Amino acid sequence: MPAASLPATQENVGRVLSWASIFGLILAGCSEARTLERCPEGQIATVSGCLSVASTARDAATESDAAPRDAAEITQGDAALDGGIAANDAGADAGATDASIELSLTGAWALEIVATDQVTSSSLNTTETVVITTIALVELTQTGQRFQTKTEICQISTTALSEFSTIYPEAAIAVIANQESGGSLSTDANRTRFIAEPRAQILGWTPVLNALTEQLPESEEDPRVVDADNDRNPGVTLEIKGPIGGEIYVASRSIVSLEGTVESSERISGLSETIRKQVTLGASNEILAENQILVVPGQDPNASTFRMARLPTMIEPNCLGIVTNLEQIFR
């Protein structure tokens, strides 16, 4: 019977110690005979001498408390410990999730997208790397781990293809419709991820069904083509500078996706991807009119990036304020 099953009363202790005395005598008799001495009242004779009943009861209770736990006790105790660990882990996870919620990103931001693309010209019969930089104003509204953005394009510039450069005039920039899209924030490995859903940047035509997936117009006779910049030419007019200069009239779409890290409530940065398609509807001369451009993302995805900076209070939240103070905003 386990020690814990016998109540440590004076009567039980006496029985136990009597058995122990007899057992002790038997062991002692193996080497030599020993005689129990007579003890005063309140004490019990043992082979080692007289012991107090009270102190012996305390020793028995102590041994009972120190007895090993049975399987049920061990299982219950370990389950409680596991439950506590799980609760702590859940609390840590909840804290990590709440980190992005507590971070306030609502406000006006400057956005710079640098896209490194492979551009092919049908007339030049060449493919080269072209860097296209877009500057924009973003009005961001955060609600918990979701956000909504309204993007206004301020400036688009490109590096040259061979000796030819494409210029986006202010009239063309002005007619790019503001784009609204959503996105999400998530906390992962001690960082807050920023994921902006794809948005469509349309120029020179009006989608009827879905701006992200609808096929572009192939000619100026397509009813979706609009003279957006009101210059009496189909689509939007871009300028070409080079050995053969002039104007091209285009319909285009750029699908922009952003994914990065929230560095602070003032800075966001990461990688960008832009899927572009452009159709030349006409031009100011026949050579340019025959040229079609094919644009695909570059082979190195890390070469296309974006960065966002919250606008300081002293800078007006508009395109003029951003373009004029671009270096100060991103320094």
Report on the architecture of this protein:
The chain is α+β, with helices and mostly antiparallel strands and 331 residues long. The protein has two domains: 63 residues, no CATH class; 228 residues. It is 26% helix and 40% strand. It contains seven helices and 13 strands. Strands 3-4-5-7-8-10-11-13 form an eight-stranded antiparallel β-barrel. A hairpin with a 2-residue loop joins strand 4 and strand 5. 23% of the residues are buried.
What's the layout of helices and strands?
Elements: H1 10-29, E1 43-46, E2 49-52, H2 53-65, H3 71-102, E3 107-121, E4 126-143, E5 146-158, E6 165-167, H4 170-174, E7 179-188, E8 191-203, E9 236-241, E10 246-262, E11 267-283, H5 286-290, E12 293-297, E13 305-310, H6 319-324, H7 326-330
Antiparallel strand pairs: 1-2, 3-4, 3-12, 3-13, 4-5, 5-7, 6-9, 7-8, 8-10, 9-10, 10-11, 11-13
How many structural domains are formed by the residues? 2
Q: Helix tally?
A: 7
Name the shape in a single word. globular
Profile the largest sheet.
Answer: 8 strands, antiparallel, barrel
- The pLDDT mean sits at 80
Which structural class do you get from the secondary structure elements? alpha+beta
Strand tally: 13
- Kindly state the percentage of residues in helix: 25-40%
Radius of gyration: 41 Å
* Proportion of strand residues: 35-45%
Distance between the termini: 80 Å
